[in-house]
Amino acid sequence: MRRARGFTLIEVLVALAIVAIGMAAVLGALTSSANTVSYLRDKTFAQWVALNQIATLRISGQMTATGNSDGKIDFAGRSWTWRREVTTTQVPGVVRIDVKVRPAEIKADEDNGWYTTVSGIQGDAVGIPNAVDPNWGAQVLPGSQGAPGQSGFGSGGMTGGQGGLGQGPTGSGGIGVQGGLGSQGGLGSQGGLGSQGGLGSQGGLGSQPPSPQPPPPAPPDQDPDSQ
Length: 227
Description:
Blueprint lengths: L8 H50 L8 E9 L2 E11 L5 E10 L12 E8 L104
Antiparallel strand pairs: 1-2, 2-3, 3-4
């Protein structure tokens, strides 16, 4: 009677090696996924810390001085390190704020190791609305007394001004200006509705008819004695 043949030692070792390699790949993928989730969580918290720093400066009511500063703050049960850089811009009265954040346990220099960088602006520049050439930094609110001729509602100048309502000299570029309602070539003007030679005007539809011509004079009666 013959015995049933089983697996040899080499075959068992090869099978175990294949299983070990597969399990290592699966564990590596799970570890990488867990690390990615943890990094994204920390990056989101770092962005919230940076946004809170910018919002705090904006609601403080005071302009932030230019320069660099850093500090630490506790948020979401962890300690965070932030660095703030404030620089001027080309717009007078407006500064740019860059805030970098990373966990406090990460030790790195000033240029590396940051999880996020959030940028914002702060300023007290006020400009009168003008889509063509805004005058930022004028420090004049709309409706207040400003420079003559500047565009805007209720700004310095005269009604019907250049380029908008309520500014500049009367009669150019706004409501009631040349080429508009009630002006030359418009409604009610020369050559328009209700004007000379137009609808309802002299010689037009609905106008005064011409006066009837008097009948020609009758020929004088002839004298019968003269025939």
